[in-house]
Amino acid sequence: MLFYTESPLQFAFSKLGDDGESADDTKKFGFIGIPFDSTSTYKPGSRFGPRAVREASYNFERYNVILDKNLDVSLFDFGDIEVIQGNFEKTSSIIEFTVKEILDKGIIPVAVGGEHTISSGILKALDVENTTIVHFDAHMDLRDEYMGEKYSHATVMRRIFDLNPKDMIQIGIRSCSADEMSFAKENKITYFTPHEVNKNIEQVKNVIKNIGGPLYVTVDIDVLDPAYAPGVGTPSPCGLNPFQLESLIHCLKDKEVIGFDLVEVSSSEIGDITSINSAKIIYDFLAVQ
């Protein structure tokens, strides 16, 4: 039994009424919503992201035209974690505890936020020191603190860096402070701007394809240009387009992905373009597994 969760609408194609205990598949995925957005500083509302993404997921067919295959992974929706708005420390502990329960079932977590701080709680439950972090985002999120807070949507990748991962790769970066850029260069963090992706996407794809060992994927939906994802916490112009992100996600095929999250969907509207593109990213990720 998973604690601290409630069960709203389930993600499309998940197995109804099943907690994964009886499944004997070699690769199983567990969807969890984490509706926490207490450190949002520009546009709040990502607490509504999990439901919006679940609703949008029913827009897709099981058959994937581009990959010419059915979505045939074992997916279980465990509902939403019962977060404590305004208390990230307690919420992070609940996230860590719940993710460990999912891992104990032999299930790979697929989380939807909620703001980006949730990723650090998830990664505390994993063996990070042997793991490469693949981070899609408009922002580096490498500040040591933001507005006096160590744990913030603007500091999450710094807190993850503190966990000592094997490597960190950031894709879509187009907004950061001078201190963040200096930190990235000093610590040899690989990053690609949208201009670099536009100029030579094959180089970026090869970097992903050449990753060896376990990897964790975190997608801040603001990596997409606001034309494709306007409903985000901190929009930034000149981002990736859905075709580019789709082709990069497809590079995760045959990789040892130990966890995945998608965050910062600040939309509660049915049919909203942000939630549709977000659900599509998860759909593509699951389709290549």
Automatic annotation (TrEMBL):
It holds the Pfam family Arginase. It comes from the Archaea. GO terms for molecular function: agmatinase activity; metal ion binding. Keywords: Hydrolase, Manganese, Metal-binding. Binds 2 manganese ions per subunit. GO terms for biological process: putrescine biosynthetic process from arginine, via agmatine. Mn(2+) binds at H116, D137, H139, D141, D220, D222. The keyword Transcription does not apply. The keyword Zinc does not apply. SUPFAM superfamilies: Arginase/deacetylase. InterPro entries: Agmatinase-rel (IPR005925), Ureohydrolase (IPR006035), Ureohydrolase_dom_sf (IPR023696), Ureohydrolase_Mn_BS (IPR020855). Its cofactor is Mn(2+). PANTHER family: ARGINASE/AGMATINASE, GUANIDINO ACID HYDROLASE, MITOCHONDRIAL. Belongs to the arginase family. Agmatinase subfamily. This is Agmatinase.
